[in-house]
Specification:
The protein is of the alpha+beta class. It has helices at about 5-10, 60-75; strands at about 20, 25-30, 35-45, 80-85, 100-105. A five-stranded antiparallel sheet has the order 1-2-3-5-4, with helices on one face.
Length: about 110
């Protein structure tokens, strides 16, 4: 997708503070962090929303979640706890229409989130 912000980051057309990348996904620090650690984990393949996931995407979703756990360990807050969030569509808080998992940690998180 030519005008997708996350596709441009994945393709290195826009700089980002990358902390992980492999053949399936890219993880980078959020530019507007909501916690001491706020990382976005995105698949390289463009999928606009969770509603657009097909059965062929089951593997990538699991890979994204496992990568979030690995980053939480690497950042040192896995045992204390962290939050992972997928937003879907405008009312769900999605602002970039390329699925992405938010990983938030490094401080106590309250509920409900808002």
């Amino acid at each position: 997708m030519t005008d997708c912000l996350f596709c441009k980051i994945v393709n290195r057309e826009i700089p980002a503070a990358l902390i992980h990348e492999d053949d399936q996904l890219v993880a980078f620090r959020d530019i507007n962090p909501q916690a001491p650690t706020h990382v976005l984990i995105v698949p390289r393949r463009h999928i606009a929303t969770l509603n657009d996931l097909g059965a062929d995407a089951d593997g990538i979703v699991g890979t994204i979640v496992r990568r979030a756990a690995a980053i939480a360990r690497d950042e040192g807050f896995a045992e204390a706890g962290y939050r992972t969030v997928f937003n879907c569509n405008a009312d769900g808080g999605q602002t970039v229409f390329h699925i992405h998992l938010h990983l938030l940690g490094g401080r106590p998180l309250t509920w409900p989130p808002g």
